[in-house]
Write the structure tokens for this entry.
Amino acid sequence: HGTTFGGNPLAMAVGNAVLDVVLEDGFLEDVQRKALLMKQGLASVADEFPEIIEDIRGAGLMLGLKCAMPNTKVNMALRDQHLLAVPAGDNVIRLLPPLTVTDAEIHDALNRIRAGAKGLAEAIASAAAK
């Protein structure tokens, strides 16, 4: 890598390959469909666990969970479920799946998010019962 705008041949080849994939017929429509699947699934989890997830934010596949509790606790619960997410600000968890994510991977992620939220909700209920 010599310069930022020097036209590195490898970088140009990679850029062209990415454009080839993104410009394929139906690719962006499929991304929109997957984004809707993800957002609807997250809304279902938020409806089930409002004490954990207050709202779903974002556009496309760049989504955020507005947390009703400290996002660090939610993030740790997701990591315990082997799901990598990114805390943002003081109350949001960012989810950034790749555009090539599969439906099966989306369902798997939603199951992990639901399991993490369930664990947190059970911990809250257990603490309240004491």
Observations:
- The first helix runs from residue 9 to 22.
